[in-house]
């Protein structure tokens, strides 16, 4: 039984990994928009710019049908957008301001 479950999970992973990262792209775009609305352009411009560059990279990979690379770039865009949002709401973290 455990072997069957492992095989099924492996197949599901392969099927899920093969397609375009539609959800990841959407999540990243929403995160970037949330950061922008929160004022990241003024309060955390480097992180917002990095997120925008990553989503642009993800889009290029998507258009080239390089789905794994597109997914990775979209996830990084979302991560950077989350950093920008956090910095916009709480200020950037520094050694002086833990």
Features:
98 residues; mainly alpha; disordered C terminus
Q: What would you note in describing this structure?
A:
The structure is a single chain. By secondary structure, this protein is mainly α. The protein is built from 5 helices and no strands. The chain is elongated.
A few lines on this structure:
The chain has one domain (22-90). Helix content is 82%, strand content 0%.
Helix-strand blueprint:
Blueprint: H1 2-18, H2 22-37, H3 40-43, H4 45-63, H5 67-90
Largest sheet: none
Number of helices: 5
Average pLDDT score:
86
Strand content: under 5%
Task: Catalogue the unreliable spans.
Answer: 94-98
